Amino acid sequence: MTPGPDTATAAGHAPAAADPYAGRPHLTRDHLLDLLAQMMRIRRFEDRCAELYTYQKIRGFLHLYDGEEAVAVGAMRALAPEDWVVATYREHGHALARGVSMNAVMAELYGKVEGCSRGRGGSMHFFDKRLNLLGGNAIVGGGLPLAVGVAQAARMRGEKTVAACFFGDGAVAEGTFHESLNLAALWDLPVLFICENNHYAMGTALQYTESEPEIAKKAAAYDMPAVTVDGMDVVAVEAAARHAAHAIRDGGGPQFIEASTYRFRAHSMFDAQLYREKDEIEQWRQKGPIVRLRDWLQNNGVLHDGDLAAIEAEIDAEIDAAVAFAEAGQWEPVEDLTRFVMSEKAATP
Ligand SMILES: Cc1ncc(C[n+]2csc(CCOP(=O)(O)OP(=O)(O)O)c2C)c(N)n1
Ligand SMILES: [Mg+2]
User: Fold this and answer.
1) pLDDT at residue number 349
2) Which of 64, 72, 162, 188 measures 20 to 30 Å from 252, CA to CA?
3) Atom 6 (ligand 1): residue with closest C-alpha?
């Protein structure tokens, strides 16, 4: 992790208005602490979710992002509010990093009407129109064609937005992956493909399903620029995402990032994890994104006494408030059960 310079300005010219989404990360102390706090916020939020699951406060599917936080937090920094985000069923981190309130996320997990999808989506279907978060998606590989369509729509409307598409390594085995990369490259669409390679698709390790397990290489087949980044290094992810988003905004067509990461917990709450050794998990834990950034900040004198405790206290208060908000939320009335199944627009005569 090497801090880079802030944006340079040409001598003799007034500084250009800073574009916070362009160029390199601004590695100020505040920025680094914020990256750390955001990852800790997602981690602690999900730890509480796992606990609430055992009390059956949260039910149904629950796929935790534990270990992968650097990918969503780093990549989201490169996106502007007008950009689009398409995620997978493991999207708690993306929703929080994008700015969905923790209250709305927790209420959604509880199935309450105050949730970001009115409690109808649950863990796999967070959605927020105001934030251009086009949702989690339960279908492996289902988000890729959506992102391509969104990018094409933006192009047709004359907007300079980026459609960021997060997907797992398992999606690479789907036809939609190949069709989407092909079309995005053929039409030079503004899509940022971000593969969250945690090396497993449920209980199957990548090397058992892919003849070429280096996923970034697959983008080359579609003539698309691609990089592999250490997905445990939030600064590296942010730098790669900024570089890619900048190139896309410059009209360079789609870009591909493969972030190598790992999920520390089970695939979902119903997974005995018989397919991997505890040692393997432990080794990855030791190079986890939070430990890594925290240690670097500590070793370099950036993290001061009391900083961590203050961050934790603030996050825990936010989580407590979110739980209280979800507890106090309402169930959708039964008479609304079929609402939104059909369009509410009046039928044309
Ligand atoms: C089209 C489709 N096929 C199969 C499934 C069942 N399924 C759910 S999760 C999953 C594994 C996906 O792995 P990956 O894309 O690597 O994401 P990760 O869970 O590792 O984040 C599978 C096969 C599904 N949801 N959709
Ligand atoms: Mg995976």
Assistant:
1) 61
2) 72
3) 140
Give the binding-site residues of ligand 1, using a 6 Å CB cut-off.
Answer: 90, 138-140, 168-171, 198, 200-202, 267
Instruction: Output the CA angle 252-182-170, nearest 5 degrees.
Output: 110
Residue 13 lies in a domain: no
- Tens digits of residue pLDDT in 253-286: 999 999 999 999 999 998 999 999 999 999 999 9
Distance from the alpha carbon of residue 328 to the mean position of ligand 2, in angstroms? 35
- Which CATH number goes with the domain that contains 317? 3.40.50.970
Burial tier of 347 (Cβ tally within 10 Å: 0-12, 13-18, 19+) = exposed
Determine the pLDDT at residue 17. Answer: 58
What mean pLDDT comes out for the span 209-215?
A: 95
- How is residue 265 written in tokens? 């917990």
Ligand nearest to the CA of 260: 2
20 Cα–ligand 1 center, Å = 34
Which of 140, 180, 258, 284 for a ligand 1 pocket mutation test, highest count of atoms within 8 Å of Cβ? 140
- Give the CA count within 13 Å in the CB-facing half-sphere of 59: 6
CA dist., res. 94 & res. 112, Å (int): 20
In a domain, 346, yes or no: no
Q: Which residues contact 331 (CB under 8 A, 6 or more apart)?
A: 111, 112, 113, 119
Q: For the chain, how many structural domains are there in total? A: 1
The pair of three-digit structure tokens given for residue 168, joined into one six-digit string: 């797992």
Range of the domain at 284: 29-270+277-324
Q: Is residue 331 part of a domain?
A: no
Interval between CA 257 and ligand 1 midpoint (Å): 19
- Centre of ligand 1 to C-alpha 201, Å, is 6
